[in-house]
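In the design runs reported in the main text, the only information available to the sequence generator was the tokenized backbone. The following block is the verbatim input for one such run; it is reproduced so that readers can re-run the procedure and compare outputs position by position.
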């Protein structure tokens, strides 16, 4: 079972994480990559790299034959699947072993058993682990499922047996809706997992998601490494994870941990795995959900509180080494929080963000597991998560403060991320008081969430940062490329005007760095003394009080963008100089409001109109798939469809024309 070279059948941040674990043990790594990832950091940092196909996962990261061929060509002796893609595919694990390679994970039989939610719950019951009341029978007829639904009562969930991540899941609150829910869950399960089997389960509102990390070797030693809370979720996708799970009754915590060990022992589990529970605080009960037979996205929080490197132990266990730890050796220190950083816009229904990262300035002093760097391209082919921010502190409140402080110093340009939204979650009273639950986001933001904007003071400072960037201290205004128009050499203080998204009302700056005055469109002003921009920091004095703020200035297409650290977090301000304003005004109307364009690169899933159709403003014309999400693209104006430039299955670039309209005349 010895090996010296590991092929990593994955991409992004988890591939880099596994590479670090391999280097720690002196093992070489092989990266397999798609055409879209040719220049990705995980490819560059690997000892060996092999392109295995096109950008679509089916052509590359799900292509078993191509992965095994890459292992053979490079002489890899083992395969680590990471998470996602083929990580819980029993057929892939078996194919790896049949090729004479070591699969770094559990036995294929354990993967298959836990991959079926029905079989997994039966195994849990046999091991004495509580499960939610429901129906998990083999009779999948409509009549039997509806009979069981009536017996179970509402609210209930219809869930795909082979599902995960919320796919193939439907909530039923009225039994009259049960037939449609069963049919749609089956259809989605068949399309996503190739298995239409479903089961029924009682729905527990306001529940928490608690899980237990287990670790077993091939010598029948099995430990738990404590618990985690992953209750902050959107559409069953985790947003923030923490360890340990806070505010659990200690006897119930002990029961959860012991039950996880019993279940893992009952299936002779080997490697790292996670037993997931639903905890119902109103009943003081917990129920088995599923077992993930792989490394979890949130494994770093367990590593932070235990000091145990899970990837290292996965590798050691795969080599046949026994665990050198006893359960009593596992110690828990402090509290850890992980924030998932995704390329999406939460203020616009979590619209995927794509493009090239022009600025990547992460915080110092915390762990960041990242799949990207400055210059990386974020495309539409894969999941939107690009990095994970992990903090550790003596207690939960301290961990929250550290996470917020880290986000407040994290600046990214070129591609929008969900950092401000995650900050809003961390600072929300419900999260801090542990009132959050798995379906609680609508309660936390009943009117939706909006991106924070700079206040008057911060807007003035953002303009000053750009002003000093364009005309640094000691530079003649005549040599700068800024918007200076009145100059000190002419006997008058230097002055300039800048515009935000509005091209009408400028923000005016006058004076010198010794005394700079910003006058905003509403008439308010801000005066700074000894203002300076040095090493991406804006400093000076306001009302005699010194300040220093992180400030990154970058060119973003036809305007400037200032990333400024503020008390409300990192804010973005788009600004135009006089020259930018002239160009922007000249281009107004060039694209026309009669043309629907793609807001990001993606694949056309549906075209819902045909030439000659009459549509109203807001009607869905095209459905675009990007980062595993479907985006409905509405008609920009009312009118008649004159031309269609795309068809289902087409891959389109950002801003590509999709549908042209003949706008209806306004009366």
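Verbatim output:
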């Amino acid at each position: 079972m010895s090996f010296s070279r590991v092929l990593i059948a994955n991409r992004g941040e988890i591939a880099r994480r596994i590479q670090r674990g391999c280097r720690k043990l002196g093992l070489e790594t092989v990266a397999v990559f798609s055409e879209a990832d040719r220049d990705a950091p995980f490819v560059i940092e690997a000892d060996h790299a092999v392109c295995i196909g096109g950008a679509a996962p089916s052509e590359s990261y799900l292509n078993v034959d191509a992965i095994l061929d890459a292992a053979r060509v490079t002489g890899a002796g083992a395969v680590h699947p990471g998470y996602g893609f083929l990580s819980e595919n029993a057929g892939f694990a078996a194919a790896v072993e049949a090729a004479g390679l070591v699969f770094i994970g559990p036995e294929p039989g354990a993967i298959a058993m836990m991959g079926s939610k029905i079989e997994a719950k039966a195994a849990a019951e046999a091991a004495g682990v509580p499960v939610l009341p429901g129906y998990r029978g083999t009779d999948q007829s409509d009549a039997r499922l509806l009979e069981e639904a009536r017996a179970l009562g509402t609210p209930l969930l219809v869930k795909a047996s082979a599902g995960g991540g919320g796919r193939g899941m439907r909530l039923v609150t009225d039994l009259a809706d049960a037939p449609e829910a069963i049919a749609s869950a089956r259809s989605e399960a068949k399309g996503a997992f190739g298995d239409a089997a479903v089961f029924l389960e009682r729905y527990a509102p306001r529940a928490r998601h608690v899980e237990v990390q287990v670790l077993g070797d091939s010598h029948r030693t099995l430990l738990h490494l404590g618990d985690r809370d992953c209750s902050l979720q959107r559409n069953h996708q985790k947003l923030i994870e923490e360890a340990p799970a806070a505010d659990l009754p200690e006897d119930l915590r002990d029961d959860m941990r012991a039950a996880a060990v019993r279940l893992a022992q009952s299936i002779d589990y080997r490697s790292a795995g996670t037993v997931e529970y639903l905890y119902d605080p109103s009943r003081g009960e917990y129920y088995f959900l599923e077992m993930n037979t792989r490394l979890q996205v949130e494994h770093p929080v367990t590593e932070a509180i235990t000091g145990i490197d899970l990837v290292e132990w996965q590798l050691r266990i795969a080599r046949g080494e026994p665990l050198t730890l006893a359960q009593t050796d596992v110690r828990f220190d402090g509290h850890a929080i992980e924030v998932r950083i995704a390329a999406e816009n939460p203020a616009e229904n979590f619209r995927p963000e794509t493009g090239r990262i022009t600025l990547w300035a992460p915080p110092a002093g915390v762990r960041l597991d990242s799949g990207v760097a400055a210059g990386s391209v974020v495309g539409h082919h894969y999941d939107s998560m690009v990095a994970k921010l992990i903090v550790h502190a003596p207690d939960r409140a301290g961990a929250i403060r550290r996470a917020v402080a880290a986000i407040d110093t994290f600046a990214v340009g070129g591609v929008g991320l969900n950092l401000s939204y995650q900050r809003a979650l961390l600072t929300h009273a419900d999260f801090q008081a542990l009132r959050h639950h798995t379906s609680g986001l609508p309660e936390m933001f009943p009117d939706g969430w909006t991106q924070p904007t700079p206040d008057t003071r911060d807007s003035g400072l953002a303009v000053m940062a750009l002003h000093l960037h364009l005309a640094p201290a000691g530079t003649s205004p005549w040599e700068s490329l800024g918007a200076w128009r009145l100059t000190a050499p002419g006997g008058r203080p230097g002055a300039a005007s800048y515009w935000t998204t509005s091209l009408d009302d400028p923000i005016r700056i006058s004076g010198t760095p010794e005394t700079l005055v910003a006058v905003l469109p509403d008439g308010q002003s801000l005066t700074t003394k000894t203002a300076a921009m040095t090493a991406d920091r804006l400093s000076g004095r306001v009302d005699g009080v010194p300040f220093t703020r992180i400030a990154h200035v970058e060119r973003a297409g036809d305007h400037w963008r200032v990333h400024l650290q503020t008390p409300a977090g990192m804010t973005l301000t788009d600004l135009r100089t006089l020259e930018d304003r002239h160009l922007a005004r000249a281009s107004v109307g060039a694209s026309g409001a009669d043309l629907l364009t793609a807001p990001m690169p993606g694949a056309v899933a549906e075209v819902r109109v045909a030439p000659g159709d009459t549509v109203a403003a807001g009607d869905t014309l095209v459905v675009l798939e990007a980062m595993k999400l479907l985006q409905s693209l509405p008609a920009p104006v009312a009118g008649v469809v004159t031309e269609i430039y795309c068809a289902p299955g087409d891959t389109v670039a950002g801003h590509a024309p999709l549908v042209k309209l003949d706008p209806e005349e306004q009366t």
